[in-house]
Known about the structure:
Order of helices and strands: HHEEHHHHHHEHHEHEEHHE
Strand content: 5-15%
Strand order of the largest sheet: 4-3-6-5
Amino acid sequence: MLPNHTSKRLFSKKWILSMVALLLAFSVLSACGSKKEGAATASPSPSAAATATGNPADVIATYKEGGKITRAEFDSFINVNKMFSPQLAQFMTDPAFQQDMLKQMVTFRVLSAKADDKVKADADKQVTEQMKAITDYFGKQEGGMDKQLKDNGIELKDIESLMKMSFYTMGSMESKITDKAVQDSYNEQAAAHAFDIATVSHILISLKDAATQKDLRTKDEALARAKEVKGKLDKGGDFAALAKEYSDDPGSKDAGGTYKDADINQWVPEFKEAASTLPLNKISDPVESSFGYHVMKVESRSTKQLDDTLKTQIKSQLAEKSLSEFAEKEYPNLIETNNLPKPEASPAPAASPAASPAASPAASPAASPAAK
């Protein structure tokens, strides 16, 4: 009920987590930047399959050790990504986007080729599972999987190829992460409270209905109701019973208002702060957040232990970091030829008056002591 970010996902299937981590490992959209003001926006429709014109057999890039990428291979790579992230359609003709995708493709190719037999065997099993999940999901959409493939100008083997490159790459990178590196990362993140957890019971008096977002009450009314709840608790009222009666949080009201051993970093700032600082096992005064008012009781606080699940999570984080570093540092040295359009160089910003040698501090009102 209290997430600090929208928890809805486009796909609820488990495999989408892998796709986000692997296919979008380099944050494609951030490389492209925002669309230029006044520029026409391409509709993210499936029909925008082609990224550029040219013969499919044309070689658009070469890299060390005899590597080459044809127009057909590049277009398939981009169109698979677009199938999973339709919003990418608006960037298809953007040179910066194309250059970033080329970086990803070359990086995946080079690193996946270094995967050993064990990594490949493990990855192949995952790819088989993921491909089934993908075909099952898209098979239930209008027109089925065949329509999705046709609209995006790809074949099923193109998806499988990218999946294999992705899993081979990440598997190879993760295999190089040592236990010490995982432990060190855990210690560093734990010191920064990244793994703080708490068991918190609360009764939310909301301003709006959680389902419809219609107004329920004013802030003054909500505060008065929260104080009423606190008063009953202070007199020995049963927290679970009062949560069931009063709370507007559908995620906890039927569980005594309790979130057990929850990651506090997922909560909105006000609730997180209270969960981090309130005295244990004391009924709080109403705590205001964007949801309304909370009457809280923090029952315990601790740090998530480094179990196998967390080790896997941290190992993936470190592998993704290594992957990004490889792409930024090693990729420029790998490329031999690159025939894709290059982004236009941004014009140098005009010197500001404060930065200009002709603009002395004395002439600047902001720099003048009298102007303060």
